[in-house]
Amino acid sequence: MAAPAAAISVPPAGKAVRPLVHWQDRLAQVLLVVCCATLALFLLGPLLMILVKSVQDKDGAFVGLLQFQEYMATPRLRQSIWNTLWVALVVTGITIPLAFTYAYALTRSCMPAKGLFRVIGLTPILAPSLLSAISFIQWFGNQGILKGLLGGIPVYGPLGIIISSIYATFPHALMIVLTSLLLSDGRLYEAAESLGTRTGRRFFTITLPCAKYGLVSAAMVVFSYTVSDFGIPKVIGGNFSVLAVDIFKQVIGQQNFNKGAVVSLVLLVPVLVAFIVDWIMQGRQQSQFSARAVPYAPKRAPWFDGAMLAFSTVVAMLLLAVLGMAIYTSFIKLWPYDLSFSLRHYTFGLVDGGVIDAFFNSLKMAFLAAFFGTLFIFGCAYLLEKTRGLPGTRALIRLLAAIPMGVPGMVLGLGYIFFFNHPDNPLNFMYKTLGILALSTVVHYYTSSHLTAVTALKALDAEFESVSSSLKVPFYKTFHRVTVPVCLPAILDIGRYLFVNAMVTISAVVFLYGPDTRLAALAILNLDEAGEIGPAAAMATLIVASSTIVCLLYALVTRVLLTRTQAWRRPALPI
Amino acid sequence: MTAASASRADAPRVGSAYLELEGISKSFGRFQALLSVSLAIHRGELVTFLGPSGCGKTTLLRIVAGLETQDAGTIVQGGKDVTRLPAIRRDYGIVFQSYALFPNLTIFDNVAYGLVNRHRAKDEIRARVAELLKLVGLPDAGPKYPGQLSGGQQQRIALARALATSPGLLLLDEPLSALDALERVRLRGEIRALQQRLGVTTILVTHDQEEALSMADRIVVMNRGHIEQVGTPREIYETPATPFAADFIGKINVLPAIAEGAGRCRVGTVSLDIGRMDIPPGTATRLYLRPEDIGVHPNGAAPAGRNALGAKITKVEFLGAFCMVGLVVEAADMPALTANVPRHAVDAGGFEPGAAVGLTVPPMALRVLI
Question: Does A469 contact chain B (CB < 8 Å)?
């Protein structure tokens, strides 16, 4: 007569139920394993090769940590570690407050033309990092008009690296901080106001804690970017040695691949540390933005708005001055002696010299990376999030997708040499093709793209797949009839992201191009080395122009999609 | 007690058993979601799985649908063992709390989603969709998008989509929980009428006792991964088999008591006639008493009879059709009681806090659980 009789009865000791797997589920699982294997092959394979090479000498004999000891015994190389770190710390320390204040002005003030300021703040993303270096040389270099402002300190060296890196990292920090500020809950401020909390206290008790994770994340991104970037120190660094350039010198200059592997592992350490710090912080972040949260709506405050407008105007002008100088340089005869308008850097410098082929290579490579990269990344994220079974494989894919964020492009590129140039690798034929350049670019920028796809997929009702199987509709039909159309904005966003980055990247591809597959950003490097600043600026301008066109196209297509084919989006979605 | 009442309720009622669950167990890591659950559902009946969140009701539904795989146990549907079949090869339609309508497809395409895949003729599909939209009372919704409909309308469309392929089993996973109160009541009547008209065997998962009582042919009360009681709404309400079932469905007074023999139980210092003789003296029991079963007589006027008590009113809470009256039986060492008194009776006077009243407790209304 005991009440919970059913609770006491023990499950029959029968064997576990083994469900039959439908061929469609099997298909999804096979595809998932293929995705996982592909990622492992093109990410882990090259990284493992670096580890192997770092403990071998030139002839392939195992030497243990000998090369690391040699490395540490070389004062110049040791100096590079310190140089790299302090420069990156200074850049982080300046960029983050700048980006935060700029983002604060965009979200918390009532200053006019916020849309314009936002776009200007993000423009550096369209340009290769080299552009800022070239531009600063024009402003402050030996022939620079503002050279006097530096008071005798040469721009070639740490100073140039720092200001160029601030320019290049500013938009990345801005995007992250902007997102975290936009996500704060307006109700918190209303509550604080009703309690009579003063503005300063509100800033320190609500704004900063809410933006904390965004700030840490932005700081880690800026730090990693600066540590890993190779273009800026190469162009404007002078004799100031940093790790990324050391790798280049070891590999390209001295053809000492094994030493290069050692340096790249040293470079990997600070980036991995930043990556892990960010990872831990993100894990701690609780969802502060509940479904009921109300976006913050700023109120007018003349003095505050005025100050914010002044600050943003100064920053925007500086950003435009950098971009503008590069474009200007490309259209004049010879800085600073002959400022008359001329297209000779384009016609004579690029077209006649055949350098323009590099630009078309870049376009082709960017399209390849954007098209196939988006296909793979979204498909893989879909299989990961929306199909069932194989929990181990899923966990591995999640891990693999997170790794590229923590691997500098130089390291990845070097790994690709070892991996694809290996005589025993059947994929050897890919070495020095556009295909491998596109592949390395997709892998290099995998993490952000993957997160965009996963976020879009998670926003879909989790039961679409259950409903489909109850209606006996195969998963791939629901994928193309529902999932892809609904996620189209995110898919286009991934494509745009890959395209723009493929146009500007140099670090991963600098080791991988062949005579026929030189890219535009690499051509800038070569032109700069040859002292051809005008054509280099012209090439940079072409890259900015093509990336701008793609971004405008993206904005246009997204708008058309949202207003026409996605008519269902117009009313607020209840999901 | 559970087993006895369950087997009584399992007797064929509407039709023969259509769905038979035997020994279903499921755990997620160390959490035991279901413990050897067995249940038979008859053809054409509407059964609700009722219980608090985390009781395993949704897990059980998802196992029936093949969306989760049980660790042990068998499922037979329509005489066929479907235990190992994947979801896509089972025969059911399903409706979720979130509606899960495809936002980029029109209502027509949503309802036709399962039909198109079966290569039916276009005219046939059009006719079937029109029929279903009419059935759920939204004949003109076809060209609209889900986002343009209200929550209740969207849920009707989800129902039409689930019914489109004429499945043998309809699964409803908290279908009304996302709707506002009025819409919920309206739709629950509509779903029940539709289900009875089509005669489709239906499982409804809910945590709302009112929904379960008003819609179900039978209710399966679940708690912590097992079945507490299976029975018709009246059986569950009037003769709860377990303390949990008594407590979870409706309001109830719980009185710890000791059996005295001769059909009586002692609560505090009061001896009550419980109307049954089968409990050995000295057994510790609990008496369950619905608030509406207590007779409350104003001005201390307790009529002579069995189980008459004197009490004092502590508070009167107005709830519309009736008032909830808080009572203490003075000097009886008995827990406070709650009684429901119709509004008009309260209006007649004598129900102010502090007033003395007489109580009567019909022996048949006392449910004894050990």
Answer: yes
